[in-house]
Specification:
Chain A: Keywords: Signal. Chain A: This is Phosphate ABC transporter substrate-binding protein. The complex is a heterodimer of chains A (313) and B (405). Chain A has 313 residues and is α/β, with parallel strands linked by helices. Chain A is built from eleven helices and twelve strands. Chain B has a two-stranded antiparallel sheet. The chains are: A alpha/beta (313), B mainly alpha (405).
Chain lengths: 313, 405
């Protein structure tokens, strides 16, 4: 009984119903959980939803995965209480929510994701720094490079010969935006970056061409390409392995979040609570690993569980 | 009999009613189609209009859309299509590279499709036995039925990497194929007449098959040798260093091949119609005067059918410009302004397909994509109308020359 409706009257009635139903339905909750948001997280939401349905027969999670940008309007309009997003809310999105409700949305970090820079599996490139990455992919060099790098020889490699062939995601994807913000320091991509409709297509294109380099989501990595370790600001090489991403050492990482419409001092409705409890449990985090994302450290999980009132402080 | 005659037999009245119903339905359907086309055009125009009110979409105007712009970090003004630049600097909307890419892709596909399709049309209209021709048509129509996605997929994931690995072979084929085919034709003429008669003219293509296989094998042998002899073992580096040409894995030539494949059937069908529609009396007259088949084709048939052939090519161009999935999957979608056929491109249609689902309705980006759609619509509408006009005039000319069809 947790379908969320638009009008506050229905919402109030439903919250009441949930409160009354709460004790009785503690074991088997039912209802549909509507969520709107990120397509990167669609697989995760789906698997968590399946697991939830197995634990509580009769409960379903519905996801409208039309992109991170669709979550804030839906949360603000009240059509959903949960908005999965692969990027933090922008200032404007945050403000719109606060203007409507008077309190900020609650942010729950549910998993970590990383972008990997990949080259052909025979490419010996040892590592790249952020300015080098910027000099390869952008034409603005905002991260401090002196000029562009267009040939493999400029990186000190004898093989592969020739120009660097660039592959990336299409301009409207979140991956493209994240890479531009983090690796190009907000600069402008070269127009010669091939734009592919998905990370898997980028990986496939790089796998074919010894002169290619590209970026993709960590969960799309295959043995046909080699991920290039990145050097952080101190010059330490960081390979995109789950441990480094979990610690936050790997430079091109991002948090995957759930935004929750939760008034301060109140506790979550039962269905939402069950879902987030599952997500933050060892079981939920195992699903994260299965799908190729990176699970959160136990400290972060338990801190969030305490904050949400799932565990005594 | 008048339709309103009072005492017609029941059956006849019924049939009349049915006829009238069918006519009404067909008319309504026709009007509906026209209304839908007009409706689409009106919708596009209405949605695009606000772009040109300065208050609605700042920074967008004819200059920013079509002329090169000064950009930070670049020495010379340039064209850039980067619709989601976001925070700072603002998005860059230059339609020129997209329009260029569209035309480039269409041009290369025509370069590949027109000789093949017209050659096939001429051969089948003039030399092929009727039975074989009846078989060929459905085969080519099957080619047309192949979805663009499939062609694009094969081009992008199979053809592009293969060609990249076998550039030497491709070059050798390019060099060997034309002289090889000419040689095959010359040898055919030298064969004893007895042998020539055993293979009817319509089946002469069979003679070419072993030749093609041999050319292929020869190219396979020659390709790597050519590459190491002339190009230091790596054609791709040679192109880049000596000629300054980038080789992109998915390039205009790949798009041209894939889209050429898709366009061949439409050009073939129309051109073949035009050629076989030339009144027989013309060809027979020419041959009676002692013209060879080749002279008949070149001097009589082709000039007579030239408007039809032209309209076939125009229909092909219209299809190539509007084609989306092939370009999307085979081109790499890089919004570049280069004449290098070995570099990538990005077309208007592919940009619409990629970006429209993510563009905020009512935003500048959204309206610009609709402007791109309007451009495509106008272009294909114009080309198709022109082709139709030409064809109608051709039909009138045939009627004048005698001969019914």
């Amino acid at each position: 009984m947790t379908r969320v409706h638009r009008s506050p009257f229905w919402a109030a009635l439903l919250i009441l119903a949930v409160l009354f139903a709460g004790p009785a339905a503690a074991k088997h909750r039912s209802g549909t959980l509507d969520t709107v948001g990120s397509d990167t997280m669609a697989g995760l939401m789906l698997r968590w939803g399946e697991r939830l349905a197995r634990q509580h027969p009769g409960m379903r999670v519905q996801l409208q995965a039309s992109g991170s940008a669709s979550a804030p309007p839906a949360l603000t309009a009240g059509t959903t209480l949960l908005g999965p997003m692969s990027r933090p809310m922008t200032e404007a999105e945050h403000q719109a929510f606060v203007d409507r409700y008077g309190y900020p949305p609650r942010e729950v970090v549910v998993a970590r994701d990383a972008l990997v820079v990949v080259v052909h599996r025979h490419n010996p490139l040892p590592s790249l720094s952020r300015p080098q990455l910027d000099a390869i992919f952008s034409e603005t060099y905002r991260c401090g490079a002196a000029g562009g790098i267009v040939r493999w020889a400029s990186l000190g490699l004898e093989r592969p010969a020739g120009r660097i062939v660039l592959h990336g995601r299409n301009a409207v994807s979140g991956t493209h935006g994240l890479f531009r913000r983090e690796a190009l320091c907000g600069g402008r991509f070269r127009p010669s970056v091939s734009e592919h409709p998905g990370s898997a297509a980028v990986v496939a294109a790089v796998a074919e061409d010894p002169q290619a380099i590209g970026y993709a989501g960590l969960n799309h990595l295959t043995p046909s390409v080699r991920p290039v370790p990145l050097r952080d600001a101190e010059g330490v090489r960081r390979a995109p392995v789950p441990a480094a991403v979990r610690r936050g050492d790997y430079p091109l990482a991002r948090d995957l979040r759930l935004y929750v419409n939760l008034p301060p001092g109140e506790s979550l409705p039962a269905a939402e609570r069950a879902f987030i409890e599952l997500v933050l449990s060892a079981e939920g985090q195992a699903i994260v690993e299965e799908l190729g994302f990176v699970s959160l450290p136990e400290a972060v999980l338990s801190r969030q569980r305490r904050q949400l009132g799932f565990e005594p402080r | 009999m008048k339709p309103s005659a009072p005492n017609l037999p029941m059956r006849q009245r019924l049939r009349q009613g049915r006829d009238r119903l069918a006519t009404a339905l067909i008319t309504a359907g026709g009007i509906g189609v026209i209304a839908a086309v007009m409706g689409i055009a009106v919708f596009l125009v209405v949605e695009v209009m606000p772009l040109f009110w300065p208050a609605q979409s700042p920074g967008v105007g004819l200059e920013t859309l079509w002329l090169p712009q000064d950009l930070a970090g670049l020495e010379a003004p340039a064209y850039r299509w980067q619709p989601t630049l976001g925070d700072d600097g603002g998005p860059l909307f230059s339609l020129t590279p997209l329009a260029w890419g569209t035309l480039e892709a269409a041009a290369w596909s025509l370069v590949i499709a027109v000789p093949l399709a017209l050659g096939a049309a001429a051969h089948s209209a003039l030399f092929m036995p009727r039975r074989l021709r009846a078989r060929l048509r459905p085969t080519l129509e099957l080619m047309e039925a192949l979805p663009g996605v499939v062609i694009g997929f094969v081009a992008g994931l199979v053809l592009a990497p293969w060609l990249e690995r076998h550039l030497g072979l491709a070059l050798a084929l390019l060099l060997l194929l034309p002289p090889g085919l000419l040689l095959a034709g010359g040898l055919w003429r030298q064969l004893p007449a007895r042998l020539q008669q055993r293979l009817p003219l319509g089946w002469a293509a069979l003679w070419l098959m072993p030749w093609l296989v041999m050319t292929w094998l020869l190219a396979h042998w020659l390709g790597p040798r050519l590459e190491s002899l002339w190009f230091g073992g790596d054609l791709r580096s040679w192109l880049e260093i000596t000629l300054g040409l980038d080789y992109a894995n998915r390039n205009a030539v790949i798009v041209g091949m894939a889209m050429g494949f898709a366009v061949v059937p439409s050009i073939y069908a129309l051109a073949e119609d035009a050629l076989s529609g030339v009144p027989r009396s013309l060809a027979e007259g020419a041959q009676a005067l002692g013209a060879t088949r080749w002279q008949t084709l070149w001097r009589v048939m082709l000039p007579a059918a030239s408007p039809g052939v032209l309209s076939a090519v125009m229909i092909g161009a219209g299809r190539a410009v509007g084609e989306t999935m092939i370009v999307l999957m085979a081109s790499g979608n890089t919004a570049l302004m280069t004449a290098n056929p070995l570099d990538g491109l990005r077309s208007l249609a592919a940009s619409i397909a990629i970006e429209l689902p993510e563009a905020a309705p009512g935003g500048t980006h959204y309206r610009l994509l609709l402007l791109a759609a309007l451009l495509l619509f106008a272009f294909t509408f114009l080309v198709n109308t022109l082709a139709e006009v030409v064809r109608t005039r051709l039909r009138r000319r045939y009627r004048r020359l005698g001969g019914p069809s």
